[in-house]
C-alpha cells in the first residue's frame, strides 16, 4: 500500500498514478516553472501499486541522466533521443513504437544532424513540405497528411521539451499545420448491407459472427480481435470493451522491419465502454460462447490478428458482390444507420467510444441521399405555399 510522501495514488478508474519532480538545479533543489513556485511534475501510470512504484524508481534515477547539453553544438538528433526517452514511461507501447518509427525513418535522416541553433522555422517548413510531396521511402510520392501530421506533432513536442530544458531553439511552429483532404467515407447502402448479412448468416462461423457483431455495434477491428467470451454479459445483453489488439514495431528487436502483436487498453478512456447488444445478436452469441478465456473469433486461446481479419472481411464482401470496402466501413455504416432510425447522438457517441458528439457527427455520421430527399419532402409538406 502507498505510504505518505511516496506520491502514489489510486485513481477513480482503478489504475494507479505516481508523480515525481522532473527537474532539479545544480544544488539538487526542485526547479520551479511558474510564479507560484510550484515544482514541475511528471507522471507515470500502471495497473498496480507495485508497477507504479517500480516505474517511479526507474524514472527518478533517470532524471539527471538524460539532460541535453546546453550549448550551441547540440544537434536535433540528440534532442530527439532525449525527448523519446522522457516519453517512454508515460506512453503506451504502441505509441512509443510509432514515435520511434517516424523518428528513425523520416525525421532523423533529414534533421538529425542539424544544430539546434540552426533549426529555424524555414528549415522545418521545407522539411514538412518535402514529406508531403516526396516523403515515401520507395520514392513513389508523398506521405499521407495523417502521417505528416504525426511527424509535425513530434517536432512540436520536442521543441516544447527543448524550451523547458532551456536549450537554444529559435523556431516558432505555432502557425504550422497540415491541411487534411476530406474524403467521402464509404458506407454500405441498405441493399449492400442486406447482401452482406445474407453472406454472414449463411454457414456462419466464428469469423462471420465477429463481422456481424461489428456491423451491429460499431466496434473497431482491433477491439473485435481482442474480444474474449469473458467480455460478454449475455444474461444482461451487453458487451464490455476493455482492450484492443494491434501490430506494432518490435523495439526490442533492433530492426525497423520486425513487428509484433500487442493487446493493450483502448486508445483512450472513452473507448473503455459497455455496449448494449441487440437480442438477436445475443441469441447468435449463445451458440458460439465457450470458455471465458477463449477469443470469440476462434473459440480457442488462439487469436486472429487485425490484418488477417481485414482480409477475411474483404473476402466476404467480394463473395456477396458488393463494391470493395475495408473493415472500418462497418463502423461508418453502424453510425449512419443509427442516425437514420433516430438514435440519440449522445448515446451513439458513447457506444462508439468518442470523447464528444462532434467527433461522431463530423467523422462517422453520413446521411444517405435517400434520407436527405425524405427530409426535404417533409419540409416541403409542412411549409408548402398555399396557392400551389
Give a description of the structure:
The chain is 45% helix and 10% strand. It is mainly α and 388 residues long. It has three domains: 65 residues, no CATH class; 118 residues, DNA polymerase, domain 1 (Orthogonal Bundle); 185 residues, Intergrase catalytic core (hpI Integrase, Chain A), CATH 1.10.443. It is globular.
Structural class: mainly alpha
Please give the largest β-sheet. Answer: 3 strands, antiparallel
Which word captures the global form? globular
First CA to last CA: what distance?
78 Å
The total domain count is 3
Strand arrangement, major sheet: 1-2-3
Average predicted local confidence, pLDDT? 85
User: What is the level-2 CATH architecture name of the largest domain?
Assistant: Orthogonal Bundle
Low-confidence stretches: 31-37
Question: Radius of gyration, rounded?
Answer: 25 Å
Q: What's the level 1 CATH class of the largest domain?
A: Mainly Alpha
Compute the number of helices. Answer: 14
Could you name the CATH homologous superfamily of the largest domain? Intergrase catalytic core
* Helix percent band: 40-55%
Strand content: 5-15%
Listing every helix as H and every strand as E from the N terminus to the C terminus, the arrangement reads: EEEHHHHHHHHEEEEEHHHHHH
Amino acid at each position: 500500500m502507498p505510504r505518505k510522501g511516496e506520491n502514489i495514488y489510486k485513481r477513480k478508474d482503478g489504475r494507479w498514478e505516481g508523480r515525481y519532480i522532473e527537474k532539479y538545479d545544480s544544488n539538487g533543489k526542485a526547479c520551479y516553472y511558474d510564479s507560484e513556485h510550484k515544482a514541475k511534475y511528471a507522471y507515470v501510470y500502471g495497473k498496480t501499486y507495485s508497477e507504479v512504484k517500480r516505474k517511479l524508481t526507474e524514472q527518478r534515477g533517470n532524471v539527471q541522466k538524460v539532460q541535453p547539453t546546453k550549448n550551441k553544438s547540440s544537434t536535433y538528433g540528440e534532442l530527439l533521443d532525449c525527448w523519446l526517452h522522457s516519453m517512454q514511461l508515460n506512453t503506451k507501447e504502441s505509441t512509443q513504437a510509432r514515435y520511434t518509427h517516424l523518428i528513425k525513418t523520416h525525421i532523423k535522416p533529414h534533421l538529425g544532424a542539424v544544430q539546434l541553433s540552426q533549426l529555424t522555422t524555414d528549415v522545418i517548413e521545407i522539411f514538412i513540405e518535402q514529406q508531403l510531396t516526396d516523403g515515401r521511402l520507395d520514392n513513389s510520392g508523398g506521405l499521407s497528411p495523417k502521417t505528416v501530421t504525426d511527424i509535425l506533432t513530434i517536432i512540436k513536442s520536442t521543441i516544447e521539451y527543448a524550451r523547458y530544458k532551456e536549450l537554444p531553439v529559435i523556431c516558432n511552429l505555432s502557425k504550422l499545420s497540415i491541411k487534411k483532404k476530406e474524403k467521402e467515407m464509404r458506407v454500405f447502402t441498405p441493399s449492400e448491407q442486406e447482401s452482406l448479412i445474407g453472406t454472414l448468416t449463411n454457414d456462419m462461423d466464428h469469423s462471420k459472427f465477429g463481422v456481424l457483431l461489428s456491423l451491429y455495434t460499431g466496434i473497431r477491428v482491433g477491439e473485435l480481435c481482442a474480444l474474449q467470451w469473458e467480455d460478454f454479459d449475455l444474461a444482461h445483453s451487453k458487451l464490455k470493451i476493455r482492450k484492443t489488439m494491434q501490430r506494432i514495431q518490435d523495439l526490442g528487436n533492433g530492426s525497423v522491419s520486425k513487428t509484433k502483436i500487442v493487446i493493450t487498453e483502448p486508445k483512450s478512456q472513452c473507448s473503455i465502454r459497455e455496449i448494449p447488444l441487440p437480442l438477436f445478436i445475443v441469441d447468435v452469441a449463445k451458440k458460439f460462447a465457450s470458455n471465458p478465456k477463449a477469443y470469440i473469433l476462434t473459440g480457442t486461446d488462439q487469436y486472429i490478428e487485425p490484418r488477417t481479419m481485414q482480409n477475411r472481411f474483404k473476402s466476404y464482401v467480394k463473395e456477396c458482390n458488393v463494391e470493395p470496402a475495408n473493415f472500418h466501413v462497418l463502423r461508418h455504416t453502424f453510425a449512419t444507420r443509427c442516425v437514420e432510425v433516430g438514435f440519440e447522438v449522445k448515446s451513439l457517441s458513447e457506444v462508439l467510444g468518442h470523447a464528444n458528439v462532434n467527433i461522431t457527427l463530423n467523422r462517422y455520421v453520413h446521411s444517405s441521399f435517400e434520407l436527405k430527399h425524405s427530409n426535404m419532402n417533409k419540409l416541403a409538406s409542412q411549409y408548402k405555399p398555399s396557392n400551389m
